[in-house]
Amino acid sequence: MSFFELTEKCQQLAVVTNERTYTYTQLAQQSNKFIFNSTQKELILILTKNTVQVLASYIAALDSGHAVMLLNYDINKELLAKNIEQYRPKWIVGDINISGYKSENLLLTRIDETSNYKIHADLAVLLSTSGTTGSQKFVRLSYGNLRSNAQSIIEYLAIDENERAVMNLPLSYSYGMSIVNSHLLAGAALILSEESVMEKSFWEEVREHKATSLAGVPFTYQMLQRIGFMKMDLPYLKTLTQAGGRLNEKLVKVFGEYAQQNNKRFFVMYGQTEASPRMSYIPHERVLTKLGSIGIAIPGGNLTIDSETSELIYKGANVMMGYAECLEDLSLGDELSGILYTGDTATVDNEGYFTITGRMKRFIKLFGLRINLDDVEKKLEAVIQAPIACTGNDDKLVVVIEKEEQMGHVKENLERLYKLHRSAYKVVILEIPRLANGKTDYMKLKESCL
């Protein structure tokens, strides 16, 4: 099988790096260096970096018909080891040494050849449900899920072979993966970068390689405003996209007005990994008139609101097959039939534009990465052996402890387990409020800390 059909695009520009450029034919040649031969469907784990070699391995893995697990290369080593032990990938792509695997260049192969498990024929990609935490719970995405969502994105963003998208988000993050999938399927080019928008060298790359589009999470846009992005001379940059959490209305207005005044397009989008990941967008010409909204359903998708719970429900061919929490779950088929209960509550206006009003479950998004507050509590309590309560919003995680001597230990483990910058969280010393039944009073906690 061939998911990306690279050879059909031949001499079109596919990838740009600081070292060189690659046509689609040359990218196909790079992917052919990765051989995943097996008599049965196996699991490939890719530790992602924004390099040609890793991108080529992802293409080869999808084209091979095997299932692909994507994790960022800087994942906590303990959590990586747990995932490898739990899911027993046949191959690992990454510059690491793992016991039980033999290494040749970037490709590690499991020494034990026996595989006594089955992987469903439709399963294409496994993405972690919790960003950098390395959770052993994964979203199961099919080839159809990926292709459907990529085609929808190509349609509403009008992506063609003339586009050059900056790819500086992790491939292991659903937003980053969708940029790769949509642009390669459209015959467009990717500018691979590991640089931060805060670095001068990043903008040198953008100018030199004539980037036409830039994607970012809310934190990206906060930083863009801080570094004076509006004053930069970027004549080739025509499209800005934002997803990965709610961007405050003030910044949506700022960037919407900037785009309007400079003949550019600014798209605000909404999605979840469970939907491969896009579910809605605001057409760029309506951004300023629909501030605070998540827009309308993507082409081929449908959004409705449950009349009793106000939960936002999405229907579409991009909805995941289901979750995997263990190796045996990889054999499961489609469990959701294209219907996703988002866990978000919403309203809809008379033009069909939806607005998120809250969340039914306890998770926040930091820098585009979903953080389960209950998961944070559980992990930290196991480490410090003392009561902990977590709250927060899409700007900051708040961890509440009751004793000052726990402060250093909590901060150390937050950064070790979740790789959060200190600006992304705060630790508060407070007597944890309780309800009459002894459970944490999260409403009072949030009122006290935010």
Automatic annotation (TrEMBL):
A Pfam family of this chain: AMP-binding
| Domain AMP-dependent synthetase/ligase residue range list | 9-323
Keyword Membrane in record: no
Q: Which UniProt keywords apply?
A: Ligase
Q: Which InterPro entries match?
A: AMP-dep_synth/lig_dom, ANL_N_sf
- Which protein family is named in the record? Belongs to the ATP-dependent AMP-binding enzyme family.
The molecule here is called Phosphatase
